[in-house]
Write the structure tokens for this entry.
Amino acid sequence: MIKITDLHKSLAGIEVLKGINLEIKDGEIIALLGSSGAGKSVLLKNIVGLMSPDSGEVLIKQKNIHTIKGGELSDLRDSIGMLFQSGALFDSMTVRENLAFPLREKSKKTETEIQNKVDAQLKNVDMLDAGDKYPAELSGGMRKRAALARCLILEPEIIFFDEPTTGLDPLISNSILRLIYNIHEGLGFTAVIITHNFEKVFPIAHRVAMIDEGKIIACDKPEHFMDSDQPTVNRFVAEATRGPLEALNIE
């Protein structure tokens, strides 16, 4: 589904991506880990075509997203969904209007068909009673659910999740990840979850990849990732699984 080959990208004279190689299979959930500044966001922007690499290529459905143009590029982008870290909902629209917007822009459905599809997606994320609320009236978890519903409304084949649990308490984080997993089980889309909160993502990921200093240094099943012989991976796992007081050596 997605094949990244020898991808290089420099910003302001600093090489951020130093030869990324990664293949993401149809229908799998892959978690992409890395510390701040490791290159996760730059890699994501190159994959979806918001940035162009200095060299290397990104193939999505066997098409190079950086060289195709016109209708072919538009069709490819329509097959990709994105759940932004902030949710990126339109503040001036209700939840229902947020979901209807992509359908009005991208489809030829009647208004009745649009509203039926909106209702189905709201039900899918357990928000049918919140359709007439504005984003400012929603909790953090509800905003994530609304954003996920909007992301799914065009039935994308590939979805990128940018830090889907950031800013949420542990219980809400778990519910969002469980929702992603359950919807994935039903629809079978390909998912890339960019996160630093790997211990929560492990139960739903098929594979885990880690980027460090501009390269993919490990990519394996979650249970094998935990036993990696890579020192950087071991340090990352150790720090991520230690409690905050323990990490600061506070007794």
